[in-house]
Specification:
This protein has helices at 19-29, 36-44, 88-102, 117-125; strands at residues 10-13, 48-53, 59-68, 71-79, 107-113, 129-140, 143-153. It is an alpha+beta fold. It has one domain (6-153): Aminopeptidase.
């Protein structure tokens, strides 16, 4: 499938019926993907969970965020490999920040792999700043990889 123009994207709350396609995107994107159970738990507890589909309902990207006590934690933003570099991650990040603001959140947090320079640049473009580092946070082929902890004051 070719990349679609932004006016062809459809943003929807994530529902269990999206999960087979979400899992396909997840597995195509990560060496250590989340499981169906993790996604179902996120939906069960009411996290802010979103999918972007094309006009026929195919999942192109998704995002999940938890919110509590004035803080939001972006858990995952993922774009299908064939739809990368067309602005979907930026689109979803903007939506998550707007959702957090509407919920009176004052701080948005996230972790990003130290090796993921492209994501770090995206977050910096939105004003995220480094708050710390979590040693050995992510599984990696050769053991574990550090995460940068980033924050955005709203």
């Amino acid at each position: 499938m070719s990349a679609l123009a932004q006016d062809m994207w459809r943003l929807h709350p994530m529902h269990p019926e999206h999960l087979p396609q979400v899992l396909e995107v997840e597995q195509a994107s990560y060496e250590f993907p989340w499981t169906d159970g993790i996604f179902r738990d996120c939906l069960r507890v009411g996290y802010s969970a979103w999918v972007v589909t094309d006009t026929v309902g195919e999942v192109m990207a998704y995002a999940l965020m938890s919110m509590a006590v004035g803080e939001a934690h972006i858990l995952n933003i993922c774009v299908a490999p064939e739809h990368r570099r067309i602005g979907l991650a930026r689109f979803l990040l903007k939506h998550l920040i707007m959702t957090a603001r509407a919920a009176d959140v004052t701080l948005v947090l996230l972790e990003v792999r130290i090796s993921n320079a492209e994501a770090q640049t995206l977050y910096a473009d939105f004003g995220f700043r480094q708050l710390g580092r979590r040693p050995r946070y992510y599984p990696a082929r050769d053991g574990r990889e550090d995460a940068l902890v980033l924050g955005l004051d709203l």
